[in-house]
């Protein structure tokens, strides 16, 4: 398991996850069966870029070191995204957002700067809202089956 002590490395990892999420949601927007969910995915893709910008500001402000952040706890096996059906896409998005929530909450616990902590907790809240949106659509899909 890969470990890092650098908050900068962790934030850069989080930035990469936000870019990945942006690309995933743009892809999902094209394949959503529900036109409303397509719009939701497009909006979430935009929000992920906003998250990236917030994290980049944190990197600019940082220079501190933390310990025992295990990066592998926040990585998902993407498998073959191109072969996912609608239900699988929703489940993937739910899991991805859940991991992002955990990442930001865990980072908030180790940063010392109050502003940085608040930024991370805000990101965790927004990722929770993303997760809940996908869960709502997933529940709706299950009820239709």
Short summary of the structure?
The chain has 145 residues and is mostly helical. Helix content is 74%, strand content 7%. It has one domain: Ferritin (Up-down Bundle).
Q: What descriptive keywords fit this protein?
A:
single chain, 145 residues, mainly alpha, Ferritin, two-stranded antiparallel sheet, 74% helix
How is this structure best described in words?
With 145 residues, the protein is mainly alpha-helical. It has one domain: Ferritin, core subunit, four-helix bundle (Ferritin). It contains 4 helices and 2 strands. The protein has a two-stranded antiparallel ribbon.
Count of DSSP E strands?
A: 2
Structural class: mainly alpha
Q: CATH topology, what is it called?
A: Ferritin
* CA gyration radius, whole angstroms: 16 Å
Strand order of the largest sheet: 1-2
Give the overall average pLDDT: 81
Largest sheet: 2 strands, antiparallel
How many helices?
4
The CATH C-level name is Mainly Alpha
Helical content band: over 70%
Low-pLDDT residue intervals, each spanning 5 or more residues: none
The number of domains? 1
The percentage of residues in β strands lies in 5-15%
The N- and C-terminal alpha carbons lie at a distance of 40 Å
At CATH's second level, what is the architecture?
Answer: Up-down Bundle
Q: Estimate the global geometry from the Cα principal axes.
A: elongated
So, the CATH homologous superfamily? Ferritin, core subunit, four-helix bundle
Instruction: Please write the string of helix (H) and strand (E) elements.
Output: EHHEHH
């Amino acid at each position: 398991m890969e470990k890092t002590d650098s908050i900068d490395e962790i934030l850069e990892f989080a930035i990469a996850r936000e870019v990945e999420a942006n690309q995933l949601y743009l892809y999902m927007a094209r394949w959503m069966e529900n036109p409303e969910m397509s719009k939701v995915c497009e909006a979430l893709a935009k929000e992920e870029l906003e998250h990236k910008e917030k994290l980049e500001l944190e990197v600019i402000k940082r220079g501190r070191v933390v310990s025992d952040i295990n990066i592998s706890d926040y990585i998902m096996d993407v498998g073959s995204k191109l072969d996912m059906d609608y239900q699988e896409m929703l489940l993937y998005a739910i899991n991805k957002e859940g991991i992002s929530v955990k990442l930001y909450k865990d980072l908030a616990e180790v940063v010392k700067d109050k502003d940085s902590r608040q930024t991370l907790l805000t990101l965790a809240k927004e990722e929770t809202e993303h997760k809940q949106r996908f869960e709502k659509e997933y529940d709706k899909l299950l009820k239709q089956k």
